[in-house]
């Protein structure tokens, strides 16, 4: 008897389909604003589905990948606040999964705590990539002190 695909399998396939479509657009050099908005909306809808359930380690890698994809499209459209909100939520969800209380809502503290909490897990590289994206947003917003504060904590 064939079992229907799990939520994780369906969401993974949906993400892979969206990424494949983005690659096809890139090969066609189709980088129009409408296409970017559509892709960002599609990734954001998928992210809302994933975040509609409590954070769980089994879904975390996919969730963080979709956060990254969504944020890339938001930043491409100069929607830095939207991307930063998703990144903040991602750091908080990582901390929920790992059961760590950072003791502060400061974004630099959240990212340091999230990174430390996944240091020996498969999530480590995903969190590092999101931190790099966060630093890029801080740079575009001329928030060099935020990067300095983040570095000082290590």
Automatic annotation (TrEMBL):
PANTHER family: FANCONI ANEMIA GROUP G PROTEIN, FANCONI ANEMIA GROUP G PROTEIN FAMILY MEMBER. This is Uncharacterized protein. It comes from the Eukaryota.
